[in-house]
Write a structure and sequence with these properties.
alpha/beta; 28% strand; globular; 36% helix; 253 residues; 9 helices; five-stranded antiparallel beta sheet; six-stranded mixed beta sheet; 11 strands
Length: 253
């Protein structure tokens, strides 16, 4: 049986009177690629922020590798202790749409900082692994460069290397190409395809429909804070059943 990395049960999130997530449940197995699609404002990024503990949920369970990060108690999410959450955070990495690199650190230091400081791993080993990751991203010649000297696509590849340097069990991508032009978008999608081929577990919020269809094992279409339709990527994107999904995808086909 596949090893379940992430389980989200009946999560709810509101900002004041605005219900952003209504009773969302999903699970991700080891090696699986799940893409989340939907219009702007549908709750996709909030779902990712709740899953990665950047936002607190109002209700529902959040479970990583069988450990509860948050448990629904009496209709309210109650979070684990700070110490437990710290260990849970090490099981995933997050790649943002706007790179979030440290501007005053070199590329190499951006990749090495967290494994040496947070995971307390030996510096020589971390540097060697970081150089291997940068090689894999096609950035071996950029280790001494600073973020401002790189293109958007290169910065995003550094941020993917930085996430991988922590040896996470899974990666989250929040619209990793939305700040990039079409040519640079292709670079990033190529890197993600390669990670998928290596069976990296990933959850990707994306507007790239053909990419979601070709790379994912499972596609979720969200709108208005609910999951409208989910399932096999080809079926969802080429033959959606729900009227709202058909309407949304008609703009892309």
């Amino acid at each position: 049986m596949a090893n379940k990395i992430l389980e989200i049960n009946h999560i709810r999130k509101s900002f004041g009177d605005l219900h952003v997530l209504n009773d969302i449940s999903l699970s991700v197995n080891e090696g699986q690629v799940v893409s989340i699609i939907g219009p702007s404002g549908s709750g996709k990024s909030t779902l990712l922020r709740c899953a990665t503990l950047l936002e607190t949920m109002d209700g529902g369970d959040l479970i990583y590798l069988g450990k509860y990060a948050a448990r629904d108690t009496g209709g309210k999410s109650v979070y684990a202790s700070a110490r437990e959450l710290k260990s849970i955070r090490e099981s995933y990495g997050l790649v943002f749409q706007n790179f979030n690199l440290f501007p005053h650190y070199s590329v190499l230091r951006n990749v090495c900082e967290a494994p040496t400081l947070i995971q307390k791993r030996p510096k020589e080993q971390v540097v060697q692994e970081a150089r291997e990751l940068l090689g894999k991203m096609g950035l071996s010649d950029k280790e001494d460069a600073y973020p401002y000297q790189l293109s958007g696509g290169q910065q995003q590849r550094v941020s993917i290397a930085r996430a991988l340097a922590m040896k996470p069990k899974m990666l989250f991508f929040d619209e990793p190409t939305s700040a990039l032009d079409p040519e640079l978008t292709g670079e990033i999608l190529h890197v993600i395809r390669e990670l998928a081929a290596e069976h990296m577990t990933m959850v990707i919020v994306t507007h790239e429909m053909s990419f979601a269809r070709d790379v994912s094992d499972h596609v979720i279409f969200m709108d208005g804070g609910v999951i409208v339709e989910e399932g096999n990527p080809y079926n969802i994107i080429n033959n959606p059943r729900q009227e709202r999904t058909i309407q949304f995808l008609s703009r892309f086909n």
